[in-house]
Structure formats: structure tokens, C-alpha cells
Amino acid sequence: MMDGHEVTVVDNFFTGRKRNVEHWIGHENFELINHDVVEPLYIEVDQIYHLASPASPPSYMYNPIKTLKTNTIGTLNMLGLAKRVGARLLLASTSEVYGDPEVHPQTEDYWGHVNPIGPRACYDEGKRVAETMCYAYMKQEGVEVRVARIFNTFGPRMHMNDGRVVSNFILQARQGEPLTVYGSGSQTRAFQYVSDLVNGLVALMNSNVSSPVNLGNPEEHTILEFAQLIKNLVGSGSEIQFLSEAQDDPQKRKPDIKKAKLMLGWEPVVPLEEGLNKAIHYFRKELEYQANNQYIPKPKPARVKKGRTRHS
Ligand SMILES: O=c1ccn([C@@H]2O[C@H](COP(=O)(O)OP(=O)(O)O[C@H]3OC[C@@H](O)[C@H](O)[C@H]3O)[C@@H](O)[C@H]2O)c(=O)[nH]1
């Protein structure tokens, strides 16, 4: 919008929130449509960022059929829209297409190691078939596609109850509750800050790279190290609590970003601690907001008719 583009946001608010975009409402380049991409959409656009789908494991596992519909029928609808209006479509794919990887770090030419009938399959396989659909539309119908494989991302405007590790640990640390580590905590992840991802998505959309590109920050940590880091940054005395391992949890994950560097001139620039401090600040404000804005119904005053005294 700041570059002069007209932006239409389409959301069914399953995991999104109006509050995340309310500061744009009224801007002449902004429009918000309450719509589920599982239903067809008829609008005129030049570029489609197809970001729809719950992304947090608890959210996408909550209703696996809906997750599958969003990633399959939703993607078909968006590709159909792209074909009809001649738009370019960018698919938000995921590092989860690599499953529990046997190649480390993960390069784009790795085919992945996914359990097709496990609890994560609705998302992993949903995104894999979404990629397949993009390339079928490209080959058969000439639709221009871009595929971003997004690695773990965090930042302000994440939902506090999102259920992913960053929001869980920050909330737990702030509230003095134990930080819940699933399994031994030796599994690794590499976290990128949201503004780096947004820059990568825009660079990819406007590039001529139609094959998949990893977008992530390659700085890798174990989840246990990550718990300690957040505890220290929050200044919290919370304990660390080990819970049972999540089924099919990828044990190692780190993007190889050579392709993005070479072909998009992109790499993440926000250091992990700086990004985490921004997220911690946001969650502190969110907790204050919640405390001040909870709707507590006021008791109705008794209606007393004038001129008459009530006796019990
Ligand atoms: O409270 C928690 C939450 C999570 N974890 C662990 O922390 C690691 C990261 O878990 P998250 O839920 O944040 O995210 P995951 O890496 O499992 O999945 C994510 O992958 C990349 C994206 O496509 C998605 O955002 C999401 O599916 C996992 O090993 C998980 O078991 C904890 O130890 N404690």
C-alpha cells in the first residue's frame, strides 16, 4: 500500500484477527473481505499472495479436514482466479514439505520425508499437493506461479494462544509458568523474524524465479537452548518442564538459503535476540490490552417504579 498498490485482504478469521489490520481500515488503498477461500472468489487483481491456512500445529490439527480443504480446494480456487484474471500467484508453502528431514540443512531439491497418514499430514501433504497444483496450472494453463517454502517465523501480531513454541515460551516466561518443552528439547529449529519473511515474499513475487525457494533464517538452536534464551530475555524465574514428545515432530530443521541469496539477493537481517525482544514487547502490550478490555457484564440496576415502595 505504501508503494501505491491497492491491497485486498481476504480472511475468514479462523486464526486471523481484525485487530491485526484495523489500523489500515479507512486507508484508500485497503480493502478487507470476510471470505473463506474454500468458496470461489471473483475479484480483479494482478498478484495473489495465497497465504491462507492455519499454520500452527495445534490449529491445523484442530480441524484436519478443514486444513486439507483450505490447502486443496482453496488453492484450486486461487489458481482458478489467477488463470481467469491473468494474475501471478505466490503460494505460501512450508518447510514442513520436508517432513522429518534426512537431509540437513534442507535444500529445495530435497523431496522430503513425510508421514502421509500422521497427525501433521493434513498440513504437510496439503501444502505438498498445493505445490503440485501450482506447477500443474503453470504447465497446463500458463499461470505464473511463485512458491515460498517458509521456515519457522515469529513476530508481533502472532496470536497469544497460537500454540507455537515462540508464543508459548514468551507467555509462560512472562506469567511465571513452566516453559513446556516437548520431548528432550534436543530437536532443532531456526527462527526468522516476520519482517525478513515479508521482504523475502515480496522479492520472490517480483522475481522471475518460478521454482520453490526456501525463506528462513539459518541460525539453528535446540528447543532447550531456545527456552533458556527466552527465559533470560524475559528475565523470568520460570522452570523448564519436559512433556511427552509430539508425534512425528521433525528432529532437525534449518534452511539452506543459497538459492534465495543468489536469485533474489535476499537474506534475513534481523538478529534473533532483537526480533525476540520485539515479540516480547508485543506480548506484554497484548496482556495489558486483554486485562483492560475484557468484557465484564455490569449487573443491571433493579427497575423501581416511581411512587411505589417495594416490600419483600
Ligand atoms: O510449547 C511448546 C511448543 C512447541 N515445542 C516444540 O518446539 C518445536 C517447534 O514447534 P512449533 O509448534 O513452533 O512449530 P513446528 O516447527 O513444529 O511447525 C511449524 O513449522 C513451520 C511452519 O510451516 C509452521 O509454522 C509450523 O507448522 C517443536 O519441536 C515442538 O515440539 C515445545 O517444545 N513446546
Automatic annotation (TrEMBL):
<comment type="subunit">
    <text>Homodimer and homotetramer. Interacts with AKT1.</text>
</comment>
<keyword id="KW-0333">Golgi apparatus</keyword>
<keyword id="KW-1133">Transmembrane helix</keyword>
<keyword id="KW-0812">Transmembrane</keyword>
<dbReference type="GO" id="GO:0033320">
    <property type="term" value="P:UDP-D-xylose biosynthetic process"/>
</dbReference>
<keyword id="KW-0325">Glycoprotein</keyword>
<comment type="pathway">
    <text>Nucleotide-sugar biosynthesis; UDP-alpha-D-xylose biosynthesis; UDP-alpha-D-xylose from UDP-alpha-D-glucuronate: step 1/1.</text>
</comment>
<dbReference type="Pfam" id="PF16363">
    <property type="entry name" value="GDP_Man_Dehyd"/>
</dbReference>
<keyword id="KW-0210">Decarboxylase</keyword>
<keyword id="KW-0520">NAD</keyword>
<keyword id="KW-0456">Lyase</keyword>
<dbReference type="GO" id="GO:0042732">
    <property type="term" value="P:D-xylose metabolic process"/>
</dbReference>
<keyword id="KW-0735">Signal-anchor</keyword>
<protein>
    <recommendedName>
        <fullName>UDP-glucuronic acid decarboxylase 1</fullName>
        <ecNumber>4.1.1.35</ecNumber>
    </recommendedName>
</protein>
<feature type="domain" description="NAD(P)-binding">
    <location>
        <begin position="4"/>
        <end position="278"/>
    </location>
</feature>
<dbReference type="InterPro" id="IPR016040">
    <property type="entry name" value="NAD(P)-bd_dom"/>
</dbReference>
<dbReference type="GO" id="GO:0032580">
    <property type="term" value="C:Golgi cisterna membrane"/>
</dbReference>
<dbReference type="InterPro" id="IPR044516">
    <property type="entry name" value="UXS-like"/>
</dbReference>
<dbReference type="GO" id="GO:0048040">
    <property type="term" value="F:UDP-glucuronate decarboxylase activity"/>
</dbReference>
<comment type="similarity">
    <text>Belongs to the NAD(P)-dependent epimerase/dehydratase family. UDP-glucuronic acid decarboxylase subfamily.</text>
</comment>
<keyword id="KW-0472">Membrane</keyword>
<dbReference type="InterPro" id="IPR036291">
    <property type="entry name" value="NAD(P)-bd_dom_sf"/>
</dbReference>
<dbReference type="GO" id="GO:0070403">
    <property type="term" value="F:NAD+ binding"/>
</dbReference>
<comment type="function">
    <text>Catalyzes the NAD-dependent decarboxylation of UDP-glucuronic acid to UDP-xylose. Necessary for the biosynthesis of the core tetrasaccharide in glycosaminoglycan biosynthesis.</text>
</comment>
<dbReference type="GO" id="GO:0000139">
    <property type="term" value="C:Golgi membrane"/>
</dbReference>
